[in-house]
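General statements about sequence and structure are easier to judge against a single worked case. For one protein, we set the task of working out the structure tokens from the amino acid sequence alone. The sequence in question and its structure tokens are set out directly beneath this paragraph.
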Amino acid sequence: MGKRKVSIRESVADSIAEIAWYMEAKGMLITAERFSESVYDFLEQLSDDRKSYRICKEPERASMGFHCVTFKRRYTVVFIETTLEITICEFIPSKLMRW
């Protein structure tokens, strides 16, 4: 099993951190930590080169060649997929995706 390099943009890390901070503000410290760990584990799983992911359903992102995958049905991970690398571009709530 080969692995591709996974690059995470700073804006994605900021989005994950904002969600975790929100959870911490609500008093769910352990939940926030587990959430962050599970997101980064999920992003690392995208590196498997045996898998290929679908193009986004949203026309604007699809026209730019972005691929989308959902995380826990609430969040969407938007990324660029090549044979050598996956670049994570966005981590957004799924309800903000419009098509």
In short: The chain has a mean pLDDT of 93. The two ends are 35 Å apart (CA to CA). Helices lie at 10-25, 29-45, 59-63.
